[in-house]
Specification:
This protein is 39% helix and 25% strand. It has 158 residues and is of the alpha/beta class.
């Protein structure tokens, strides 16, 4: 498996989720299975089957997180040379040339992306269009219906 780019904050969030799953959820599910077993016949025991299903999801997520962390390439943008270029982990402020709308995004790994928090995946079309650009440089984003031109206003290494 190839390396997965991830910010320091993204790696910390995955580690916290892994710790929660292993130390809180897994023991709670095991207790629920034991409790359901005490109710007798397992074939018709809905609580038992629900707990086993939860256990499957929990164990699957634990394996997924462990695999991602073992293949993670953790990038700390604060320790990178501040060249002014847009790279993975930078926070970028852009302006739509046509409308004047200003947006700020942080380029993060796929698992960290959350548009509601202005975190965009490094693999998203807009991030791919921005990578390598500098302040006062323009770039064009091709959308299905048109092309939108943006100017880079600010690049932050935070």
């Amino acid at each position: 498996m190839s390396q997965i780019p991830m910010t320091v904050q993204g790696a910390e969030a995955l580690r916290a989720e892994l710790k929660e799953l292993k130390s809180v959820k897994r023991p709670a599910i095991i207790a629920a299975i034991a409790d359901a077993r005490e109710h007798g016949d397992l074939k018709e025991n809905a609580e038992y089957h629900a707990a086993r299903e939860q256990q499957g999801f929990c164990e699957g997520r634990i394996q997924e997180i462990e695999a991602k962390l073992s293949n993670a390439q953790i990038i700390d943008v604060t320790k990178m040379p501040k060249s002014g270029r847009i790279i993975f982990g930078t926070t970028v402020t852009i302006e739509n040339v046509d409308t004047g709308d200003v947006s700020t995004y942080r380029i993060v790994g796929d698992d960290e992306a959350d548009i509601k928090k202005n975190l965009i995946s490094v693999n998203s079309p807009i991030a791919r269009a921005m990578i390598g650009k500098e302040v006062d440089e323009a770039f064009t984003l091709k959308t299905p219906s048109s092309e939108v031109e943006y100017d880079v206003i600010k690049v932050e290494y935070i």
